[in-house]
Amino acid sequence: MDRRYFLQAGTALGLCAASPALADTGFKLLRSDDGLIMPVNLNGSNLRGIFDCGASHCILDTKIANQLGIKPTKPLTGKAIYGDFNAGITDPIKCRIGDADFLYPIIIASLDAAGLGADLLIGRNILQRASLDLDAPNLRASFQKSKPRQGMVPVGITAGKRGSLITDVLIEGKPAKASLDSGSNTPLMISKSWASENDLLKGRALSSWITGDLTGIHTIAMTTLKHAALGGMLFTDVPAEISETQLSYEINLGLPFLERFRSFWDIPGGKLWVSATSRNLGAPFERERSGLAFERQNDILKVIFVAPSSPGAESAFKEGDQIARIDGIPVSSLTDAETQKWKHEDARVSVRLTLATGEVRNLTLRNYY
């Protein structure tokens, strides 16, 4: 399941403050289905935090907050991409993220609604006082670098509606304003109204998928754009969500797009510095090719969504079907990552899925939008 976690607006909150005295050592990142994971220490406990610059502030899962004895001091109404939600917010709390210390309020909300496996969303407020050197291709980062590396290209960033980070992009040659959102696992979201105005929907294969934010799970439309460019760097065959919700700007750039770059985030200076190798520029975007979304229930995978015109639909899958084996291997012996990996294999790969009833269905992966 594609996951998206946004917090775009709340109340006026205090800024974070990064500690300047830490050694310039950097830290490792992890890449999971949830996003880019940064190490976090809060109240002496080691947590997993997703770097989500689409969120205005850091959000701690309610269950984790209860375990740590952290309580909100006042209520807060937030705006997610698909609607509004109610939460609470704390007074400023000291928290270590990667190689720096921060002091800021934390929003307390349930992250389960979005299917999130991490403990914390790390919002863009941490970037107001600390630059971030983010080497996403090599899974390294540091808050201790004072300037970008030589050879990086500057891209202008402005503060948009509700504090979103906004930059200029080209979508199939057409200029557009884009908000940056490393918490989105869709490479690119495009406003349906803007796409229609610019004739970007004619003659394209369309399908559906599901995604989530703090308001729950939602069905979305998907297609593929021929090319998109940021900082003069061109990417081709870009999977894109056609958003019928009210985006703040025409485009939303997600993690699969942003992680192609080595980047230096200087938000106070109004610059995102980027560089990319030809390998990262030319690599195809990973995409789901089965059309099946499911959730794990002990030793089976329960199908919760079947994309129209997908291989899953053509193989007669329907919601509620239970998958017990993948290519003969019991689901019980597979990790969560292994139950998902096969769906992203190359087109024309054939997969044998055995249902709990014993019925076997063969499915051939392909691009269906």
From TrEMBL:
Gene3D superfamilies linked to this entry: 2.30.42.10, Acid Proteases (2.40.70.10)
Tell me which domain of life the UniProt entry assigns to the organism this sequence originates from.
Bacteria
- Which keywords fit this entry according to its UniProt record? Signal
Q: Which residues form the signal peptide?
A: 1-23
Q: Which residues form the PDZ domain?
A: 291-345
What is the protein's given name? PDZ domain-containing protein
Q: What species was this sequence derived from?
A: Asticcacaulis benevestitus DSM 16100 = ATCC BAA-896
